[in-house]
Amino acid sequence: MHFEVDEPTPGSGGDVTLLANGEVIGTGRIPRTVSLLYTTYAGMDIGRDNGGVVDLDYEDRAPYAFTGAVDKVVFDLKPHTLEDEAELHKVNTQVGVAHGAAG
After folding, report:
1. Which residues contact 35 (CB under 8 A, 6 or more apart)?
2. What global pTM score does this model have?
3. Are residues 15 and 65 in the same domain?
4. Extended strands (E) in the chain
5. Could you report the per-residue pLDDT of 53-80, keeping only the tens digit for each?
């Protein structure tokens, strides 16, 4: 997912682009974001959500453990345009292919 913020201020909105395998599969708009933290315990939950549920109807299914494999996680918080992100993805793919070919 790529989020292009309107302005670098807390709570600012922006445009969202959802990509899969380098292809745009959806777009949307978030009119505003949260300007403060929800809780002090929330962290980088990878493979499960250890926080509270959005709706109590789902509480019995927490912590929503992911049953697949997480090969790589990247957090890049620098402001980029969608075009910059696409170019970065292209370069990372080329490096990955070259690395695989090299053994």
Report:
1. 10, 11
2. 0.42
3. no
4. 2-5, 14-20, 23-30
5. 667 787 787 777 778 888 887 776 666 6
